[in-house]
Amino acid sequence: MKFFSRKVILRYLYDQLTGNFAGFLIGMSASGLVSRFFETRSIRNLWGLTAKKTIVDKATFSNLEWILSIIIGFIVFEIFTKVIKERIDKNFPRYKIKFMRWMIANAIPEKASAIGLNLNRQRIAFFAAVQQAVVRVKNK
Q1: pLDDT in tens, the chain (140 residues)
Q2: Rounded to the nearest 5°, which phi and psi values hold at 86?
Q3: Is residue 45 helix, strand or coil?
């Protein structure tokens, strides 16, 4: 049985996020591209009489959206996996060091710690207030 380390799992999730998910999102947003050039008959364009775009029936419109989203999603997926991921993998360590130096120079870890402590205090105060209110209601 093969055991997976945290690094292997995070690498897999990173690969899925950069390739598949980005391609999926862009493919889904590409379906709006069809509505720029085509439209269906409806009441807002007086069933095609006042249409400024090409009129297609609803089945053709949905098929065009579906096909276009698959094609553009696949193209974006391939671009991400072949080009952009290689550049990110090559340049990430350099930018990571610059980002860490910037964080240390601006005392970001200390500020984040202070914000976290403040949020914990507020959460505890809120929980105590809710608990007291429940006890008061319960005692009535």
Answers
A1: 567 788 888 888 887 777 677 777 777 777 777 777 777 777 766 666 677 777 777 788 888 888 887 887 788 777 877 787 788 778 888 888 998 899 999 999 899 999 999 999 999 999 999 999 999 998 87
A2: -65, -40
A3: helix
Dihedral angle over CA of 125, 126, 128, 134, nearest 10: 160
d(CA 105, CA 125): 33
Across the chain, how many H-helices and E-strands are there? 5, 2
For residue 129, give its domain range: 107-140
Residue 31 lies in a domain: yes
Could you tell me if 96 and 113 lie in one domain? Answer: no
* Structural domain includes residue 32: yes
> Are residue 74 and residue 102 in the same domain, yes or no?
yes
- Classified as helix, coil or strand, 132 is helix
Nearest to 76 by CA among 28, 19, 31, 16: 19
- Which is it for the CA torsion 99, 19, 80, 27, positive or negative? negative
Residue with tokens 């065009």: 64
